[in-house]
Write a structure and sequence with these properties.
This protein is an alpha/beta fold. The protein has a domain of 205 residues: Rossmann fold, CATH 3.40.50. 44% of the residues lie in helices and 15% in strands. Helix 4 crosses helix 5, helix 5 crosses helix 10 and helix 16 crosses helix 17.
Length: 435
């Protein structure tokens, strides 16, 4: 498959080049030149397929020009020993649970696939790679777990100090070995800006093979499309149109859903569900994209003021706002609305939502009030509620179970390097790796 820059279609790359470069030299994002269609016969029988079988078929449809089906099977087998189950919440609403991987967040689907794919390429090239990643919460833990002790790869994670939950912080600051955490005195947007600047720094890129594990990397986007197909497989028997509500920060998750849709997945509507960092819902309402500095909320993984994947989202529709707003509806909620939703769902169903998942559910219900058509609603649960245990317990007024893999982290001392959001300081830290 050939990829081109969103800023210049003449800047192209192979899959391997796009994965390891992460960003084109013009600071655009890589997009597939053509989007192949999933085999209709496969869709006709998809309800009989396992998650891994679906992942192999989707990946082979996209990547068959670059990787054999046998190697794709090996990559999928290495990446996934967990599922993405659908759970019924109300008669017409289902939650897609994406927190059954090692870091208990949806980012495991992308990070583990990316680690396995990079290892596949590194076995041939024998290169050494330096991964740079900015996180607003869950990406860091998933990348740390996915790349921990992977030969030929070192990982530097930047996260905003005091703006991730205790468990999220421990997930990215306690592994050590080839994983290093930089605690930045700033916002996620500051962290993301530092990473992007590094990829445009010719001195750095001449000394290191840099790659990003953020959703700006196409290798993160592709595997996130797998669970949209899997959700359809699990609900196909109901025979109703599907509406996906996607809690969104950097908009990689929604872009992955759009990739699945463009490949032929039947989707009635997507809901772009955000907190007060609502640049995309405002765009869907007005047609004008006006990013603002990020604001801090209880749904911290979505605290992104200027989402990187916005351009991918619009490019799936050739940047036509009228077409975009027909397929995507935008909703945003504040912290009090989020907490109220968490309490209501727990009171009515005994199901515990993390704050991000609560936003997705509330958007779905508001959409349902406006659109009276008969459809099945799917809202994505992007993280286990225990990753926000203090907030969840305070909101619900009761204690919740914390899985042992998370509970054990709390007693481990974090190891991080504190720094200002200064590019010169960040570059100095990276260059010190040469000595």
């Amino acid at each position: 498959m050939i990829f081109h820059s969103t800023k210049n279609k003449d800047l192209t790359a192979t899959l391997e080049e796009a994965v390891f470069r992460s960003l084109p030299p013009d600071n655009g994002l890589y997009m597939p030149e053509k989007i192949p269609q999933i085999n209709p016969e496969f869709l006709n029988s998809i309800e009989t397929r396992s998650f891994k079988e679906i992942a192999v078929e989707v990946a082979h449809t996209l990547l068959s020009e670059d990787i054999s089906r046998e190697d794709i099977q090996a990559i999928i087998d290495r990446a996934y020993d967990f599922e993405a189950p659908i759970v019924k919440i109300t008669p017409d609403d289902y939650v897609l649970e994406l927190f059954h991987g090692p870091s208990m967040a949806f980012k495991d689907f992308g990070a583990r696939f990316m680690a396995a794919l990079m290892s596949h390429f590194l076995m041939r090239s024998q290169k050494e790679i330096k991964i740079l990643v900015a996180t607003s919460g869950d990406t860091g833990g998933a990348v740390a777990q996915g790349f921990h002790k992977v030969p030929g790869i070192s990982v530097t994670i930047l996260y905003p100090s005091g703006k991730v939950s205790d468990i999220q912080e421990k997930q990215l600051t306690t592994l050590g070995h080839n994983v290093r955490a930089l605690e930045v005195d700033g916002t996620f947007d500051d962290c993301q800006k530092l990473v992007k600047e590094a990829f445009l720094d010719s001195e750095l890129t001449s000394k290191f093979n840099l790659a990003s594990a953020n959703s700006i990397n196409i290798a993160r986007l592709i595997p996130q499309s797998f669970y949209f197909f899997s959700a359809y497989a699990q609900l196909k028997k109901l025979g109703k149109p599907l509406v996906f509500s996607v809690p969104s920060g950097n908009f990689g998750n929604l872009s992955a859903g759009l990739l699945a849709y463009r490949m032929g997945l039947p989707v009635e509507q997507f809901l772009a569900s955000t907190n007060l960092n609502n640049a995309v819902p405002r765009y869907l309402n007005s047609g004008s994209f006006e990013p603002l500095p990020s604001v801090e909320t209880i749904s911290n993984a979505m605290d992104v003021g200027n989402p990187s994947n916005f351009i991918r989202m619009t490019r799936f529709f050739n940047d036509d706002w009228d077409l975009i707003k027909e397929k995507i509806s935008g909703y945003f909620f504040d912290d009090e609305q989020t907490k109220k939703t968490m309490r209501e769902i727990f009171g009515n169903t005994n199901y515990v939502l993390c704050p991000h998942t609560a936003i997705a559910y509330r958007a779905l219900e508001e959409y349902r009030q406006i659109n009276k058509s008969d459809f099945t609603g799917v809202f994505l649960s992007t993280a286990h509620p225990a990753k926000f245990v203090d907030l969840v317990e305070e909101t619900l007024g009761k204690s919740i179970d914390v899985p042992e893999r998370l509970q054990s982290l709390l007693s481990i001392e974090k190891v991080s390097i504190k720094m200002n959001p200064s590019y010169s300081e960040f570059k100095r830290l990276l260059m010190s790796d040469l000595h």
